[in-house]
Amino acid sequence: MESDIATRIRTARRIAGITQAELASQLRVTRSAVANWERVSGVWPASSRLLSIAVITGVSYEWLATGRGVPTDHTQPAAVAGELVDDPKELRLLRAFRGCHSTIRRALLEMAESQRHRRA
What we know:
The chain is mainly alpha-helical and 120 residues long. The chain has a single domain, classed as lambda repressor-like DNA-binding domains (434 Repressor (Amino-terminal Domain), Orthogonal Bundle). The chain has 7 helices and 2 strands; from the N terminus they run αααααββαα. A hairpin with a 2-residue loop joins strand 1 (78-80) and strand 2. Helix 1 (5-16) packs parallel to helix 4 (47-57) and helix 2 crosses helix 3. The protein is globular.
């Protein structure tokens, strides 16, 4: 169990393979805000931010907020913005998508949406 929230936030970000700047961009905060959360003597993010961090990084909210449990539990479907993702390929795609730069995300989204319209 990670002893403090700062360490758990840093660990979650590293599990997701993203930088402080990338996490900050996805949360629409400054990189220094993320750096402050990751400092032991720093401030804690609001619980709504913790939920967003958990969703972005793919870790358990309970683990991130309290240190109880394990960071990731691949035996349970992942919660993604209120939806459950139980297809392993969809989950891999989602995690990879979250780690991409915004220009690549836009291109991937346009490509996927153009395919969806072709099938309909």
